[in-house]
């Protein structure tokens, strides 16, 4: 299968309802595979998007189909047994759909406006925030994600780590603003086992406009 690496189509909110007949599809990247070089190389981006993310989408569609069949039969045992596959592949699809938009060849630097004010309010400074999110991401054992999320009840920003492909909102209630993928497939071809080097580099391609837009939306 060939997946285009360019598209003017914006990535939309993932995961329809289980009753929908529409299958999930791999979203196009809003930039070329090589666009994030030298920070993330083209080979990583191509494999990450067209192989890893595509696998989550395909496996999610299979799991949902089986789940719909079990639902129709009233087979609760099978419904329960499918939960881990739905969580893992559904989370993988949700997380990566956010991740691609969180990155940009024109990224880096610091956020502006309301998001920057909120970061200063909740973390003291941008430098503090960056240090904390990096430390949490470095500290993920095995595979997982580091996140900046919004706690709607408390009206504040929060940093969290999730294991494997656990989706942030579905497992913690925090609304995802910025996700950093620390699975080895996200960096190993370029940075080998030195995760801190990858995390240092990724700040150069963070799309703060996208993160700010997510923040503005979830505050409404």
From TrEMBL:
Mn(2+) binds at residues 48, 96, 181, 185. Residues 23-104 form the Manganese/iron superoxide dismutase N-terminal domain. PROSITE patterns: SOD_MN. It comes from Drymodes brunneopygia. Its EC number is 1.15.1.1. Its cofactor is Mn(2+). One of its GO terms (molecular function) is manganese ion binding. The keyword Oxidoreductase applies. Homotetramer. Residues 111-214 form the Manganese/iron superoxide dismutase C-terminal domain. Coiled coil: none annotated. Belongs to the iron/manganese superoxide dismutase family. It catalyses: 2 superoxide + 2 H(+) = H2O2 + O2. This is Superoxide dismutase. Its main location: mitochondrion.
